[in-house]
Amino acid sequence: MRTLGLIGLVLALVIVGLTMKKQLATVAPAPAAAPVAGDGSAPNVRAQSQQIQQQIKQQLDATMSQPRPMPDDN
């Protein structure tokens, strides 16, 4: 009885795995090559990452410096 349950579980996992693989293959096609700028220089990923980090830090600093609204105690 246990082996029948185990076989059923393994069969269900195989079916789910194959279905997921098939759906992911149709939804996410192979990634295309990174676009190259007109002058032939590739985008600098490190510089873009640092710029995004700086923007997030500035937004967080601006948000944290705003005073919190105080509720009325009436």
Low-confidence stretches: none
Distance between the termini: 68 Å
Q: pLDDT average, as an integer?
A: 81
Helix content: 55-70%
Tell me the Rg in angstroms: 26 Å
Order of helices and strands: HH
Structural class comes to mainly alpha
**Count of runs of 4 or more consecutive helical residues:** 2
The largest sheet, given as strand count, sense and whether it forms a barrel, is:
none
Number of strands: 0
Proportion of residues in extended strands: under 5%
The outline comes out as elongated
Quick recap of the structure?
This protein has 74 residues and is mainly α.
SSE diagram, text form:
Blueprint: H1 2-27, H2 45-65
Describe the structure.
There is one protein chain. This protein is mainly α and about 70 residues long. The protein has a domain at about 1-25. It has helices spanning about 1-25, 45-65. The longest helix is centred in the N-terminal third of the chain and has 26 residues, at about 1-25. It starts with a helix and ends in a 9-residue tail after the last helix. The mean pLDDT is about 80.
